[in-house]
Amino acid sequence: MQFExxxxxxxxxxxxxxxYSPDTIDYIRSLDxxxxxxxxxxxxxxxxxxxxxxxxxSTMLLKKGAERGLTPFSIGSIMCRETLKKESVIEQxxxxxxxxxxxxxxxxxxxxxxxxxxDRRLDKLSP
Length: 127
What we know:
about 130 residues; about 0% strand; Phosphatidylinositol 4-kinase gamma 4
């Protein structure tokens, strides 16, 4: 999984510091990465495992962050490195999850590990 190249120019926009509206939170709740992956397959695009994993973890972060009242800036900052050498929070979460599961562990178990670690980290950041 490659999160080290995440850069969001919108992090510098003033509105990135505003909380999500209730309608936006409802929309975020409705997101389903697995459904989107199936839709892509239906239209002939078989997403590689690493890309599907990135979509699932990014969607998970957005949903969990929005539920905890984090702003787009806070969520985006979790995904982006502060410096080239300092790993982002999402990279740290992914590495911790990879270390916590045995090689060859199924994708569902791996993502559950990511989810638990992400919950623990986000609970420390929540307003």
